[in-house]
Specification:
The protein is of the alpha/beta class. It has a single domain, classed as P-loop containing nucleotide triphosphate hydrolases (Rossmann fold, 3-Layer(aba) Sandwich), CATH 3.40.50.300. Helix content is about 50%, strand content about 15%. It has 9 helices and 8 strands. Helix 1 packs across helix 9, helix 2 crosses helix 4 and helix 7 packs across helix 8. The longest helix is centred in the C-terminal third of the chain and has 19 residues. It is globular and about 55 Å long. The structure holds 2'-deoxycytidine-5'-monophosphate (DC). 2'-deoxycytidine-5'-monophosphate (DC) binds next to helix 2, helix 4 and helix 8.
Length: about 230
């Protein structure tokens, strides 16, 4: 049987969505799309340009003359910013906060829409972000919304940062995560929220494997209903 579903995974920072989405894609032999990386690439450009995070008009104009393309979907979403691979420069605390600010600018979201949809044209994709099930792929076959308590999300993000060699205080990372979620949930355009037809999974206290199993079961259920 060849199923080529579009599966979406939305959720706040540190909910574990990157890890489970990557694993889920591997289990299904689908491609994995990390859409946060696209917003991070625009944030990197904004950072390099010296524009302030609050300069929405400046950011909109800059974005208009920026090309963001996806270079690889094999476990890691490689991103080209104006033709240069910037993938390794995107996962710093500064770029995280700036990506959140940049993502509230409508022109930026509009600009990145086509890139995301193009990646899913053939189906067989696990797309991860904030508005996958609500805005980018409203017709997705299976939609998940992953949550976890703020402490746990902060701790996960803190561990991830340490693994990458960024030393930061745990309290500070938790605060950052909460602030970013607030920003992402309260913005006017494409706010972070579960899709009406989405399956909400609270990953607090669950292992990655347990969450992935839950998702695989939901996808199987869908297949059985369709057959
Ligand atoms: O998933 P992430 O932490 O890499 O995302 C970085 C920021 O990008 C996040 O704070 C909000 C924004 N983002 C978004 O607005 N929509 C998406 N689909 C993905 C990310």
């Amino acid at each position: 049987m060849t199923r080529r579903y579009v599966v979406t995974v939305d959720g706040p920072a540190g909910s574990g969505k990157s890890t489970v989405s990557r694993l889920l894609a591997r289990e299904l032999a689908y491609v994995y799309l990390d859409t946060g990386a696209l917003y991070r690439a625009v944030a990197l450009k904004v950072s390099r340009s010296g524009l302030a995070a609050g300069d929405r008009a400046g950011i909109a104009a800059l974005c208009g003359e920026t090309t963001v393309t996806i270079a690889g979907l094999d476990g890691v979403t490689r991103v080209l910013l104006d033709g240069a691979d910037v993938t390794e420069l995107l996962r710093t605390p500064e770029i995280s906060m700036l990506a959140s600010a940049v993502s509230a600018v409508p022109e930026v979201r509009q600009r990145l829409l086509a890139v995301q949809r193009e990646a899913a044209l053939t189906g067989g994709i696990v797309a991860e972000g904030r508005d996958m099930g609500t805005v980018v792929f409203p017709g997705a076959d299976v939609k998940f919304f992953l949550t976890a308590g703020p402490e746990e999300r902060g701790r996960r993000r803190w561990l991830e940062l340490r693994e990458r060699g960024h030393e930061a205080g745990l309290g500070e990372v938790i605060e950052d995560v909460v602030r970013r979620d607030h920003q992402d949930s309260e913005r006017e355009i494409a706010p972070l929220r579960p899709a009406e037809d989405g399956i909400v999974i609270d990953s607090t206290g669950k292992t990655v494997e347990q969450v992935v199993d839950e998702m695989l079961r939901a996808i199987k259920d869908k297949e059985n209903r369709v057959l």
